[in-house]
Amino acid sequence: MDSATMWEWIGYLASVVIAISLMMSDIKKLRWWNLIGAALFVAYGLAIDAIPVALVNFFIVLIDAYYLVKLYKKEHTTSG
Which domain of life is it from (predicted)? Predict the structure, then answer.
């Protein structure tokens, strides 16, 4: 399999992971799946020189990470 085909499949995988994330009712699971999908899209965007794709998905990774930290901190303070 050549490099272009591999990156194309990573793009498809990223799309599937994002779609899966949108089916989650648990917000933590949604954020984790979405973060993974967006991270795959960052790699995909960089690999195919699609900087706008990489940048917007990097921003989504940061947003997901921010809210995950917030969720885990809230969970830690309410359980202790």
Answer: Bacteria
Using one digit for the tens of pLDDT, what is the confidence trace for 27-72? 999 999 999 999 999 999 999 999 999 999 999 999 999 999 999 9
pLDDT tens digits for 8-38? Answer: 999 999 999 999 999 999 999 999 999 999 9
Tokens 């699609």 locate to: 50
The domain ranges of the chain are 3-79
Cα gap 47→26, rounded to integer Å? 32
Element (H, E) at 39: helix 27-47
pTM (2 decimals)? Answer: 0.89
Instruction: Quote the radius of gyration of the chain (alpha carbons, Å).
Output: 15
